[in-house]
C-alpha cells in the first residue's frame, strides 16, 4: 500500500550515516522522496493521492521547516479560495502580472504550470488537510501598479488552526519565531487592523478581543490555536499523519 512516513533522519551522500548520529537508516525504495518537511508536505500528499509511495526526510528534529516560522501567506491567483470569497480574478490577469514582474528571469512554462494547476492543488489541500483557507482581501500584490496587478491582492491564508489535533506529534512541530505567554492566533489580515488600532478602533479592538478569546478560550477547552506559518505547517503535518495512518505508516 502507499506509504507516507516522516523521518527525523537524513542520509548524507558522503557518510551514509543518519543525522542525528545513532539512528539506523535502512535501504528504502519509494516512488517519491521529499527532502524537507515544510511545504514539501503538500507534494507528499498529492503523490499519496495518486497512489505513489512517499517518504519525507527532515534533517532537524522538528517538522515544518521554514514554513512553520513564516507568515504563512500564499499567493493564490484565480483560485477557488478567492472565488468562494466573492472575488473575481481571471487567470489571464494573473498570467499578465507574472509576465510583467518575472519577465525572462524564469521559464514562462513554469509560471503557466503554476497557474494551470493551482485550482486542483487548492482542492487537494481541502481534501487532505484540516486547513481552512481564506482570501486576505486588500493585501495587495507587491506591484499592484504593474500590468495584471491587483490592489485587492491574491494573498490567501490559513485560518487559525487547533494544533492539538496533532496529538502525540504536537511537540514535533517546529516552534514559531515568537512564543508568547498569552495565546493570540493572529493572521496577516488581522495585523492590518492591529496596526491601524489608533485610527480605526472599531476594527482593531474587535479583532484583538476575537483572537484573545479564541486563544485563551481554546486553552480552557484543551485546544492550542496557531496562525500564520504555524497553522500552515500544522495543517500539512496533520494531513500527512492522517494519510500515513490510513496506509499503515505513521511519523517517527
From TrEMBL:
EC number, UniProt record: 1.3.99.4
Entry-linked Gene3D superfamilies: FAD/NAD(P)-binding domain (3.50.50.60)
Keywords (A to Z) from UniProt: Flavoprotein, Oxidoreductase
Molecular-function annotations in GO: 3-oxosteroid 1-dehydrogenase activity
Limits of the FAD-dependent oxidoreductase 2 FAD-binding domain: 31-162
Superkingdom of source: Bacteria
Name the UniProt record assigns to this protein: Succinate dehydrogenase/fumarate reductase flavoprotein subunit
Originating organism: Mycolicibacterium fortuitum
Organism taxonomic ancestry: Bacteria, Bacillati, Actinomycetota, Actinomycetes, Mycobacteriales
